[in-house]
Amino acid sequence: MRRMVLACAALALVAPALLPAQSFLERMDVHGYGGWSFGRTADNKTTNHFLFGHSRGDYSHSEFALNLSIAVNDRLKIDAQPFWHSGHHANQTSSGMDYVFAEYRWSDAFALRAGQVKHPFGIYTEVFDVGTLRPFAALPQSVYGPTGFVGKAYSGVGFTGALYASGGWGVSYDVYGGGLEVVERDVGFQVLAQGTDTTGKTLNFAETKAFRDVIGGRLVMHTPVAGMSFGISGYTGTRPVAPVERRRTVYGAHAELLTDHWSLRGEGAHQTAKEGRTIAGAYIEAAYRLTREWQVAALYNTLDAELDGVSAADIARAPSLLRHEERGVALNYWFTPNFVIKASYHEVDGNHFAQPEPVRVRSVVAGNALRTRTELVLLGAQLSF
Amino acid sequence: MRMHLLVGVLLATLVGSAAPAQSLPFRVVVHSDNPVGTLTRERVSQLFLKKVTQWQDRSRVVPVEMREALSLRAEFSRRIHQRDVATIKIYWQQMIFAGRSVPPPERASDAEVLEFVQRNPSAIGYVSADATLPSGVKVVEISG
Predict the structure, then answer these.
(1) How many C-beta atoms surround the C-beta of residue A189 within 10 A?
(2) Which of residues 361-380 of A touch B (CB under 8 A)?
(3) pTM
């Protein structure tokens, strides 16, 4: 919170000093987004939590973010995005700075970005929490959940640009280096690796891990078919875990087709880490607008994890902790492109994401009471301006 | 009979593709100092979507849009971007929240767009086909 206030204050102080008052207001764009979601697992005997829901129903998930962009001059702009979030799994409230960075543009093909910059990976990372840019209330978990594939922002320096040729072909790129924080759900790995003894051990729903000396990039090919693009992304970095540095390498590929009626997206990502685990995730998401207001959508999500150094007998205690397979359908009503009500149903097989509260996982696994199937209903309102 | 039909369809196609500018309900305008005389539909789309942000002399392109509610905006979007206004709005949401770009300023009438272009040598806008152009503003032909 303090970091966010300081960054906003610095932005507010520095930007007007660089520009005359009237010009400052003309060159500043203020946008934002927010939302609220309710989630409930369909079977009241299910102890699993998934996304915003659990068996008693959770009304508490809401968020809001402001997006500020100031064009200091034709070449230099400053961007910042503070956010506020409340939710059951986030210990009620949190706030912070999604990103704050400067971009200096020499040409369309070449610009420098420095600061805390949106992480360019796949389709959704740069618009991570913006609900009006996706058909489901939450992003596909197999790539954008707490898997450790993507972060919200890298802290460092990057270059970006795009080139468009005649005939509709184009290419855009990002390369970057610095530090990257990713959020991971480690509960399943820890329970399988450490056993079900609960003494003196605390488990969290998700853990933030900081990687340094990260080098990464993304390349997107835009095709003559309007709205169709393909891309590849990847990065590698290390995390100091005494007494060694542990390297992680993540790569992925995506395809997207956006028309007035259809949005089709598919994406896969793979992670190898010298921490004894390998994770592969993929999803396909399709949405169709029946009318200007009504939209239907479907989703298939899959994730598989492998854990080295853990005996087959230990994994056999709860192999579903390494698996997530999800089918979802949604019905959305768009009042405008800036405000939507979404209802969705999700059926999950596996416990990598859908699992009891961390404090109960070990005892549930020990009691052989882990339910591998979870049904979830989500209802939400999402907005942007 | 089939041959006549085929020739008719071919002629209609050729006439349709050779004279798109005449049928457009709007005209694309730039400052009269701008050396550009003709642009492809695709390039006009790229300029208004800020995919291309520099003129050939490397000066910054400053597009100006019509207000969303105006029918001319819908026509322009359909003919130039080949997309609904709503789809273009989603594109701009993507650009804004990714920290990539922001949409062009909007104006409420032909007169306001023309005044904007008249005052800004790097500007590009569009107005109704029957709008009277003031001095300092010229029409750009759309090809392709």
Answers:
(1) 20
(2) none
(3) 0.85
For the stretch A59-117, pLDDT in tens is 888 999 999 999 999 899 999 999 998 876 545 688 889 899 999 999 999 999 999 99
**Residue B93 contacts A, CB cutoff 8 Å:** yes
Q: Which phi-psi region, left, alpha or beta, contains residue B116 (left: φ > 0; alpha: ψ -120 to 50)? A: alpha
Residues A317 and A196: beta-carbon distance below 8 Å: yes
Residue in A78, A66, A64, A73 with CA at minimum distance from that of residue A13 = A78
Quick check: A55 and A47 in contact, CB under 8 A? yes
Contacts of B98 in chain A (CB under 8 A): 118, 126-127
Angle between helices A187-194 and A358-366 (to 10 degrees): 40
Within 8 A of B93 by CB-CB distance, chain A residues are: 127, 130, 132-133, 337-338, 384
**For residues A367 and A361, is the Cβ–Cβ distance under 8 A?**
no
How many helices and strands in chain B, by DSSP H and E? 6, 7
**Among A306, A307, A288, which residue's Cα sits nearest to residue A296?**
A288
Q: Could you tell me the strand order of the sheet in which B26-31 lies? A: B38-40, B137-143, B26-31, B123-128, B62-63
